[in-house]
Amino acid sequence: MRGALVKKPELLAPAGSLDVFATAVEEGADAVYIGAPAWNARALAKNFTPEELAAMIDYGHRNGVKVYLAMNSLVKEDEIPQLVELLALLEQLAPDALIIQDLGLYSLVRKYFPSFTLHASTLMGAHNSLAVQQFADMGFKRVVLAREVTLAETQKIHEACPVELEVFVHGALCFSYSGLCLFSSYLGGKSGLRGRCVQPCRRRYSWADAGKGQQPGYFFSMNDLEAIDLLPQLARAGVVSFKIEGRMRSASYVGAVVKAYRQIIDAGDNIADVLPQVRGLLYDAMGRRPTGGYFSSPQPADAITPFQTGNIGHYLGRVTGAKGGRVSVVLEEAVEPGDRVRLHQENSGERSSFTVKEIRLEGRVLDRGEKGEAVSLFMPGVQAESGDVLYKVDVRSRRQMEARKSRLTPPAQFKKMIEKAGKQGRAQNVLKALALLGPAAMPQRPAFRGRQAPAGKQLAGGRRGKPAELPVWLRGGDLRLLNQAVIERPERLLVTLDRESLKQLQQQKKSQQHLLKSITWVLPPVILEDDVPFYRQLVNDMVRQGFRQWMVGHIGQLQLFRALAGKGDGGGRRSAAAKLELCGDYTLNVLNSLALGLLREMGLDTVLLSIEADREALQKVCAHKKKSRTGLVVFGRPPLFTARLQPDFFQFNKTFISPRGERFELVRKWGQTLALPDKPFSLYSQLAQLKEAGFDFALVDLSFVPLHKKEMAALRKTFATKSRDRSVDTFNFSRTLQ
Questions:
Q1: 3-class DSSP state for residue 187?
Q2: Which residue from 319, 451, 484, 702 has the least number of CB within 10 angstroms?
Q3: Taking a C-beta distance cutoff of 8 angstroms, is the pair 167, 239 a contact?
Q4: What angle do CA 26, 32, 37 make, to 5 degrees?
Q5: Is 630 among the domain residues?
Q6: By the 8 A CB rule, do 34 and 56 touch?
Q7: For the chain, what is the mean pLDDT?
Q8: How many structural domains is the chain composed of?
Q9: Is residue 715 pLDDT above 90, yes or no?
Q10: Which strand ranges, in their side-by-side order, compose the sheet holding 326-330?
Q11: Of the spans 166-180, 280-294, 422-436, 709-723, which averages the highest pLDDT?
């Protein structure tokens, strides 16, 4: 740790309950972030009532503490009316900021609730100066940087962008970039982008055909971030807010971590004097093994400990026997009744937590079990086997917390606030403006049905006597796509633009230039800060060469075209750049018509809807879209993880297997680590239904599909017949996105 903090940044703490909120305030947090009911990225946590929200905001403000509301979940179309009602209430409660992810929610707030201050959630994927500048231009006061951003990159972003920067300094780390993780959703419909992640990155996996000595491991389970040594450097790099992760953590955890970081921030030139006590507090907080994360290196060596479980807490020991809610264990650490214990089941990889109700040693009931004692722990409901592992994750400390909780009561004017919101009719007025009040006001399209569209329907220009077909776009990872006649007359060819495809482009013969000019170039969703100048120059050069069609993988990439758009030749004529056609990739995570409308205002007339959406959610977006042209990925192997980390123990281009036998492949592309499903998902047999529901095109993505002769022949047959194979995965289309 070098030097004191040049200026004290804000210390921002999490709270998932009233007692945690009070603890964070009393231990020295400058601000606390809490989840708004139903629309926050910790949907598994307790939902606060309006009364509780009012009490926390009032208590925080009376103690000089800001309160931010996290509304950073993606919003489905049919959730918009309830969202409007919540915003009308929150407007009366006056939180200090909303932390958001959904572009539709941003549009709603900007147009109808402009009094709110907005912070861009880390789920918006702000990993470079393009993204941060875009959010600044959109009016966000603050941007929460992606956890993958290094200290040096943070400095560059700060120097380039006039907006407040917030970073996570402590707590759990996701393996994938936030906003790009589809793994949990792919496994069962529980979306991490909607706060319901089942944490597949914490599971144990094995490599297929593992050789001798290649044991299974927790290959993607990140250690916990602990940046206590880097606070002065982060402050000098322009960070204004130090954020602690953990809205599902206990009061004892949050209290210890807040107290530790408060001491460092306040220590001035005496940081070394408080470090021993600070490290003791962080040890007592019972987090995972610590890592400095990406701040000091884009490839931190201590980010993952692959052959340890990565459980939160202190290791208690292995189960030696279990029966009737009791487990036997030789303690590696002291434990008391009331402590919380997490059971890690070795065979399945599942984790579950229990409260210790009783401790026995040779028949005697103990007030405390000591290290080295062979005890029996009574934990009602526990189902354990010999060899399972126990971790202590929290200690008995409830009386003090309950006393703090009792201090939080809604302000006296709370009822008046609610009455005022109702009398003003804010929600109803906004809903009328959105034309969402009732079925009569809603554009109607037929719902998806399990049959083909009636014969004879056609679009203008369609063949007489035949139903009009949904146009198909074809995407590939490089220019080899030009030689693959997989689909008859695709409407468009799309190729991802990276150094590999650029090299192929430069090698193409002049005879193919006309075909090349018709390609839509796709920008990858992650462009590292050091690569921004490369892409900026490349896009500029290619546009001037006549390449007109582009697809952006992140909303920040609009910045690459902003300098080009509208430039004339000095004689009043529009430049070639002004005729660009920009499309939005599915990685923009569009799940509602408000987001579509916003993107259209920004110049994206064509957008791929969220790849993880279910049948009903897609139909409802299409029912309310206006002039936007919408598409859907109907075939492909989408990256389930998109991660910066590439440790030595990764085996790229090999299959890894989950405890349940699910198979995936690990590859390296665009300078990132990608985890792909073993086989493609397919909705190709649903093209008629997608057209009937209002889609304008479908996209077949061959980016990560082997382009060998055998595979291509099988795909041609599949696409020609549109036959339905019930063994093929349909992602979330046939189930419910949660």
A1: helix
A2: 451
A3: yes
A4: 125
A5: yes
A6: yes
A7: 88
A8: 3
A9: no
A10: 351-355, 340-344, 389-394, 314-323, 326-330, 374-378, 358-361, 364-366
A11: 166-180
